[in-house]
Amino acid sequence: MTETKFRTEQPPMVLRTSPALEMDDDQLFEFCRINREWRIERNAEGELEVMVPTGGETSNRNFKLVVQLGIWTDRDGTRVAFESNGGFILPNGAMRSPDASWARRERLANLTAEQKQRFLPLCPDFVIELRSPSDPLTPLEARMREYLENGARLGWLIDPEERKVQVHRPGGPPEVLDRSDRLSGDPELPGFVLDLRSIWRPGF
Question: What is the distance between the alpha carbons of residues 82 and 89, in angstroms, rounded to a whole number?
């Protein structure tokens, strides 16, 4: 039976606050905390981006991603993993919340206890973005470039509808994998292999 694909692209709503309102990182954290029903990010220009909530299938797929990454991270022990609610202040001033990510433990050890309670002031070493049916592709590709420009060593842009993965590394164009069943994180994530079969098929 042929799968029916539903793609209704909806870019994030952009709130331009400058110069009427300027928020530092702490104020942004508090703003997001009191508006926790929204998923809010900030771009490098200081504009706030309000994301469209994901549907059930995308939420289920993202859960499977986080579970696989979390199991490997706990076994590896040298890194810390994060899910999509974690915010990171990148060196360019943007605040981003990748769908899944991890950072080396020694980098986090340099943060104060207060910093660990707020948006982390660093770019993750590894990021995953999962494209939902409402996500335009071009902004996601720009986001992956932003991660690399701010220090990420590896990024995966996963498109379940097309069953494609863009593998982003510094210094070159992304590698596109089409309909692969497994995705290796070597050498950046030694021993981590993502089972894509469970991502391609929603769990309900």
Answer: 14
Rounded to the nearest angstrom, the gap between the alpha carbon of residue 83 and the centroid of all alpha carbons in its chain is 8
CA angle at 145 for the pair 141 and 146, rounded to the nearest 5°: 115
Angle ∠(119,121,122) on CA atoms, nearest 5: 120
pLDDT tens digits for range 124-137: 999 999 999 889 99
What's the pTM value of the predicted model, to 2 decimals?
Answer: 0.91
Q: Looking at the chain, how many residues does it have?
A: 204
Domain ranges of the chain: 54-200
Report the C-alpha gap between 43 and 95 in whole angstroms: 6
Report the CATH architecture of 54-200. Answer: Alpha-Beta Complex (3.90)
Residue 31 near residue 24, CB atoms below 8 Å: no
Q: Which two tokens stand for residue 122?
A: 């660093």
